[in-house]
Amino acid sequence: MTKRKRQQGYYTKRMKAVQEGSNEEVLLADIRSLRENSKKSKVPASEVTNGEEASEDEPESQSDLLVKFSEVEVEISTLSSIGDGLGFSPASNHVYVVPFTLPGDVVKAKVITHFANEHYTLTDFISVLKPSPQRNDSLVK
Prior knowledge:
- By secondary structure, the protein is an alpha+beta fold.
- Helix content is about 20%, strand content about 25%.
- The protein has helices at about 5, 25-40, and strands at about 70-80, 85-90, 95-100, 105-115, 120-130.
- A five-stranded mixed beta barrel has the order 1-2-3-5-4.
- A hairpin with a 6-residue loop joins strand 2 and strand 3.
- The longest helix has 20 residues, at about 25-40.
- The radius of gyration is 18 Å and the shape is globular.
């Protein structure tokens, strides 16, 4: 196992398969559902040609995604089944997963990991910029 084998790809990082019933599988199902609902509500029937939307299913290129550990402003549209907030980026159909948020919150989050093929990014919650009407901070001590 020499340097040459490492350069030839013998030691490449492998993507783990999502296990059935795992948190990742549930999260992916929620993200796919949100994206499908978003496509149905955003694309008028006159713009649909042969039952296909224009390039929304294509994965974003790495240059379109934000740099790791940069900050992004996200409006949370729904909660996932595992309790994390799901929101879209303003520029594309890319979903951001933000913990500790509620639907209607506008939050600042730090980008942690991109999953371009699945059209989502895991983020870390930084702060609430505009709280949701559902948020009740009076319970926080």
